[in-house]
Amino acid sequence: MSKPAAMKTIDVRDAVGSVLCHDITRIVPGQSKGPVFRKGHVVREEDIPVLLEVGKEHLFVFEPQPGMVHENEAAARIAAVTAGANILLSEPKEGRINFSAACDGLLRVDVAALSRINSLGEITLATLHSLQRVDKGRDVAGTRVVPLLIDDEKLRALEGMVGSPVVEVLPLRRFQVGMVTTGSEVFYGRIQDGFGPVLRKKFAGLGSSVMGQTLTSDDVEMTASAIAAFLQQGADMVVVTGGMSVDPDDRTPAAIRAAGAEVVSYGAPVYPGAMFLLAYARTPKGRVPVLGLPGCVMYHKASIFDLLVPRLLAGLDVTAEDVAVLGHGGFCSACPECRYPVCPFGK
């Protein structure tokens, strides 16, 4: 526990640098009543006339104690060691500093480090869920200490245990995406393709663009050739739509393998999106993700696409384990009015 802080009464003219023990209220008859200074405020020279105007000749203040740190300074020190790339910090307000996104991107939180910090006691750091897309300017975290004055030793313990950013925003890269749309019904013109317009809009919303779309039948070799052609053209990602079910005519997974891509995960614990496939192809520009997208991506506003594609655009290497853990929070509650992207799947 923090050392108790002593209180004393001092003349308001001698109060500069002192910490208020209680709120100071200003009353304007018939107009307003409210605090002009909050408990914990550090009195400044320009505050003295205001305090005298509200009738405060004397103040109750905390007497400085060696080794004790005011809540505003404490929050600043916590923020300094926990905030990473593309994070803006607010000014302290009532002991709290907010973290906001400096750009559109993917929020990444070191959850294990966050838990260790909050286990120290008297120090709090709260964040949004990790690995969700956030817009520039959105508040993503906040920090403050519980007491008005906290022991410096506790802050130094935190500073010594944090070796890398705890909260950061990863900007999304601008990908050129190749799209292969499978299905004989579309290839032969029996029905109109519905995937293309949806995916072009989704990728545009993420700052990327579709470099081209190729229609193929259910023939494995034809689809594999179309995938390979986009890889040879330098695509940063290839998405293959349709043909992801277990129907004998659905050959997309086989075509992705035939194109030379290594399948990392086929199937995801996400509804909608269970028939999703993630693979990587080795090309001169590196490992390029090749995705098999189920039909739900075309019909649902938020799906497996919206949970995983931003991670790939942020440059993260998504693994089979990353897909597996999506089961916690991977059930869409099908709200009457979808709140994506603020709340994909209730996250």
UniProtKB/TrEMBL annotation:
One term under GO cellular component: cytosol
MF annotations from Gene Ontology: metal ion binding; molybdopterin molybdotransferase activity
Known EC number: 2.10.1.1
CDD domains membership: MoeA_like (cd03522)
EC class name: transferase
Pfam family name, one: MoCF_biosynth
GO biological process, one term: Mo-molybdopterin cofactor biosynthetic process
Keyword tags: Magnesium, Metal-binding, Molybdenum, Molybdenum cofactor biosynthesis, Transferase
Chemical reaction(s) catalysed: adenylyl-molybdopterin + molybdate = Mo-molybdopterin + AMP + H(+)
Keyword presence, Magnesium: yes
Transferase among keywords: yes
Cofactor: Mg(2+)
Domain MoaB/Mog: 178-314
Role: Catalyzes the insertion of molybdate into adenylated molybdopterin with the concomitant release of AMP.
Protein name per its UniProtKB record: Molybdopterin molybdenumtransferase
